[in-house]
């Protein structure tokens, strides 16, 4: 089956093919509508019928009944009215009902209002990942760039570009792999050893500094929150069992913050009963969850940029004595 996007492109393209007549457009509209519903892009409209096809195109154009073909589809924010709406919710109603950034994320990313224990969890992720000192990859790059005299956006993106599988960008992979292993009923031993055979590091496990003797407070806070407020923390408990096994191999193979957020977000998606299985697979497949770290760390990276500029720091140069020059 062709994707909804391909079908919609066909519809958009169809505008160019009907300069004088709408003939043949009706079944195409219906087909595109059916595909968009099937793929969950739009909610079904009861007794949907394609709009009546005007017989005379010129008359229809004059009457304002014909729209030019669109080149963009957008489903999350509508700015055409008096005020913008996020997934159909007016900005003023968000302010009036004292909603927070977690609610905004739930509307713009997940296209629905999530219960407050979920939006609070999202906000906790943002707060706890906002910064982790000047020495980590992202902050280091941002500091060096700011000290090279670059502007805010350049300094910010140079830090953001370090987010990836080893630094802050393992949340989606952690969610994917933990979900797959847990759903298949693999024991932590079987899962970890299978990953080892494939030569893949277990996403969500391991930390440069943190260890069994130097626990990550972020993981502790998120774990406690999930255990207290989520209807189920099946995936988190599985991830912690995996940690139990990896810790028998090395002391720094702890469940890291990426793994903790990844497994808990799976628990949120599944146990909140707000998402269908197809939607959960799509969220994990597309990779929404690294967005949490990217968004959070943006706050800290902007702070590091301002900090360096405020301190009027000179151009950074790495000391020779800290480089091993070798052939
Ligand atoms: C906010 C954050 O950034 S959290 C980190 C998010 N990233 C991940 O979860 C990805 C998976 N984890 C990793 O890749 C690593 O553990 C890191 C990058 C986080 C930390 O790595 P380091 O402390 O530098 O450990 P190092 O790279 O020296 O690894 C030492 C050995 O431990 C083992 N090891 C480390 N992490 C893992 C892991 N996740 N799974 C299996 N074995 C591992 C490996 O045997 C590794 O040896 P190798 O280099 O031959 O593969």
From TrEMBL:
Record's GO cellular component terms: cytosol
Example GO molecular function: ATP citrate synthase activity
GO BP annotations listed: acetyl-CoA biosynthetic process; fatty acid biosynthetic process
SUPFAM superfamilies noted in UniProt: Citrate synthase (SSF48256)
Top-rank taxon, per record: Eukaryota
Name of the protein described by the UniProt record: ATP citrate synthase
Record organism: Ceratopteris richardii
